[in-house]
Amino acid sequence: MVLSKTNNLTKHLPRLLRIVDKELTAADVRAAREYIAAYWPKLTRFHPQDNDNLLGLPEPYLVPAHEAGHEFDFDELYYWDSYFIIQGILDQEHKKLVLGILEDLLSLFQRFNIIPNASRTYLMGRSQPPFLTSFIMDVYKVYNLDKQWLAKTMAVAKDEYRTVWMGDKKPNARLVYQGLSRYYDINYLDNLAETESGWDFTPRFNHHALNYLPVDLNCLLYKYERDFARADRILGKDKEADQWEKAAHDRRMTINRLMWSDLRSFYYDYNYVKRKRNNVDSLAAYYTIWTGLASNKQALHLVSDLRKFEKRGGLATTDNAQVSQLMPGAQPMQWAYPNGWAPLHFIVVKGLQRYGYHEDARRIALKWLKTNLDWFNRYGVFLEKYNVVTPGKPPAKGVYPSQTGFGWTNSIFELFCKEFIGPMK
Fold first, then answer.
1. d(CA 15, CA 90)
2. Distances from the Cα of 285 to the Cαs of 40, 135, 204, 256, 301, in angstroms?
3. How far is CA 290 from the centre of its chain?
4. 45 has which bridge partners?
5. Could you tell me which residues are beta bridge partners of residue 339?
6. I want to staple 181 with a disulfide (CB 3.0 to 4.6 A). Which of 174, 278, 290, 303 is the partner?
7. Bridge partners of 292?
8. Per-domain residue ranges for the chain?
């Protein structure tokens, strides 16, 4: 759904937020892009056989990070990381690797009836945010694949949708209220369900993730339904496409009824146990514009509300620090103010472009690029997340050790360079 342009947000923002200190050039980012290009082999793994708790996969894949000697190194493939990691390498040079990563994800579902959090036996009790149809449709378009391939891969995605995300009992008790789903873990623990969200951890769920219908998850399932309809149209299955479009319409209506606040003109996660929305403003709301779920009027409100999140170094994950974050001994929450993350910048920038807010998309992308670049120029590495409020300072810590050389940061940096600066010369 491509929607019409409306007035640009820029005139509503303070001048400080409108200016990227210096317009970046291809020369400015060349060393960083060469570093990224040379880093992909360090993130590449190939484990065709099960090995202890590491699951075997048929094709080489990319892991989130690698740092020699680090206590928290990776050898496993991660579900939602993989979608963002391939965004900067959707090209002919990396075609075999990209298609191989998708084949690995499909093979995990075909073998275990779930795409797990990652390819470890001990991470099988949960999944991660579902990006399978987005992955399929992206590579179908970029590589001009045939209809037989589309039919085969979408059949697996439909099975994942029905089995995992629309399951209503163990081991997949995610469909819980008025046709909408929640994040889950087979152990029925809130912290592990929150880990399935990818936002581990965040103030969005107030430590009760199992009680919430997340706006991002249900937008992703809306996109699944729209992608199924689109694929079925391509395959000449008009009756099936009509059914998927109706499912998407029904989900959109329910999301708007439960999660859109007319008073605050914003989307919020919904606590279905207490029958009320939470009050945490987060970038999860912008999945509604990435997926095309929001109306033009709702999108305008969301764009106006970017000023809550937009800081000197990019977009903060939440609009401010929650009181619970400031209490002594509180659980660290890295998916919150003051941190910014590459995948959320991708979601917001692409959502803004979809609704015609190209100047705002460019401004935010360039801020994010500069934050990444300044850190690289100073320390010679990329991070998994950044402090966008005070970009020169380290990001707020999470419960896991901080990572460098990070796949989705590298990839979104390269993608934004290609789009907003130009080819590397």
1. 35
2. 32, 21, 11, 11, 11
3. 10
4. 61
5. 387
6. 174
7. none
8. 1-40+309-425
Task: Please give the angle made by the CA atoms of 269, 270 and 271, to the nearest 5 degrees.
Answer: 125
Which residues neighbour 113 within 8 Å (Cβ) at sequence distance 6 or greater?
Answer: 159, 163, 164
Question: Closest Cα to residue 23, out of 359, 365, 366?
Answer: 366
Q: How far is CA 400 from CA 16, 200, 334, 384, 385, in A?
A: 34, 9, 9, 11, 12
> Do 334 and 201 touch, CB atoms closer than 8 A?
yes
Supply 86's token pair: 């391939």
**Residue 58: cis peptide before it, omega within 30 degrees of 0:** no
Cα–Cα distance measured from residue 321 to residue 323, given in angstroms and rounded to the nearest whole number: 7
Dig out the tokens for 323 from the structure.
């009181």
Amino acid residing at 49:
Q
Residue whose entry in the numeric block shows the structure tokens 């707020």 = 396
Judge contact between 215 and 255, C-beta under 8 A. Answer: yes
76-134 residue pLDDT tens: 999 999 999 999 999 999 999 999 999 999 999 999 999 999 999 999 999 999 999 99
